[in-house]
Amino acid sequence: MADYFRARGLAVPPELDRHWYTDWRRLITVSTALVVLGIGFQLTDFDPRHLQFDYAPKILAQLARPDVSVCGPQNEYETWLDGACGLMVVTIFLGIVATLIAVVIALPLSFLAARNLMTGHPVTAAIYTLVRFVFTVMRSIDVLIVVILAAVIFGIGTAAGIMALAFHNVGVIGKLYSEAIEGIETGPIEAITATGANRLQVIWTAVVPQLVNPFISFTIYRLDTNVRLAPILGYVGGGGIGVMLFQNIQLLNYRATSFIILLIIATVAVMDFLSAQVRKRLA
Amino acid sequence: MLVIQHLTKVYPNGTHALDDVSLDVASGEFVVLIGLSGSGKSTLLRCINRLVEPTSGSVVFDGQDVTAAGGGELRRIRRQMGMIFQQFNLVKRTSVFSNVLAGRLGYRTTVATFSGHASRDDVQLAFENLQRVGILDKTYQRADALSGGQQQRVGIARALMQKPRLMLADEPVASLDPATSHSVMKYLEEINKKDDITVICSLHFLSLARRYGTRVVALNAGRVVFDGAPAEIDERRFKEIYGEDAVEVEIGPVAS
Ligand SMILES: Nc1ncnc2c1ncn2[C@@H]1O[C@H](COP(=O)(O)OP(=O)(O)OP(=O)(O)O)[C@@H](O)[C@H]1O
Ligand SMILES: [Mg+2]
Fold it and tell me: What is the ipTM for the molecules in this complex?
């Protein structure tokens, strides 16, 4: 390619005048990657030979025979809610409640974090920057860290799980909503304003219809994600089926563990399917 | 009916979009605004109903000072002026009927708007206007399911709901093909002649301006460079408006 330019006495565009062995930047990138990989293997002591293959068949054999009896109560003192199936339902509701709490908080805040509504005036611009910042902070603390903190502060249980999940989701949902607001068409707003409508009428007629579907769609997407996250939260102190999973692994009850994991996989698959169906219809 | 005096608009970024524009529009006129892209046509139309806030100068509509009007008074003035747009500006996710009914908002209370309950008269009027622009069969469809020409007719029906005395049209046919352009322009011509609604309409094609306008106002860099009868625009005037290198192009013949 470079010859084409040279043959015509033209300057060669720099990105064409390059060979892998003369291109220092490329060499440095590749060698850096190799060095990092080498250091990583050393430090993490990664060695496939450390995987314990001798136990694996026995445990896999147990996992292959899930113990269905853990679905219900285990003795006369327990109710259905204490069994794995009951706890799964509790966990699903944990995700739902956390999502709803997050929506209620994020919905009004998201308008304050929408650039197109807030950048007109110095005061509103300051509010915009602040709310954006808060969303970013809430979002960037990983939900597992928040749950551990919440469990330490408020005690292990569903309350800690819900609070932590809701906290993280205010940041995520707030961002999604405010981006939907930033993406609305201004033409209809202009047209409705021109009819002599007041501000509230304009919002109700020209803004809200543009937001209903994206908001519902984002909410369902988060609901799906949260129900998925909820079992794992229990593992670190957030209550629900994760606690039971954790206990059974500690007690080496692999057949019970297997059933719980299958239950979680089935729930996630169903949620995923439902959420995709609903969102497809909203598009 | 509309008196514009020394209207100037400087956008915050320093663009002088309008520079001392004065116009006197009489009732019943069909004024066509022409001018190059960026000459200030949209800005002028939007200053008339104050979708854009003029920097200085005044607009007086039927004796009401638009430029001095605040909140409620401005909205009462706006509802007497219909407006249609190049991109139609319909609320796409709602039905054609809701879009048309929205033209009544200036006459309705906020509470009535939220409750979603329209008066019998408004519903009746909406059907009449849908019938008038020939899209009664599309009443219950979503607005974005319609073709461009049909959407613009919804736009006209929405504006007619205001029972306006003045119709502002910002390049209403620039997104449409020639045949559809004429069918939309004919509705504007009809409401101008039959309903005695004054029209101010910006257009890209001089042929359309000649065909539909009773008066042509040309803008160049925010100034009025021509104001007169369509027939007066000869080759020399044309070059004054559009520049030395411009050649006139025709939009297709009138479809009937
Ligand atoms: N919101 C805005 N902020 C800054 N400058 C603007 C804004 N709107 C328009 N302008 C500028 O003002 C001038 C007039 O624009 P206007 O849209 O009124 O022209 P127009 O005649 O309608 O052009 P067109 O035929 O392309 O629609 C242009 O130079 C444009 O760049
Ligand atoms: Mg324009």
Answer: 0.93
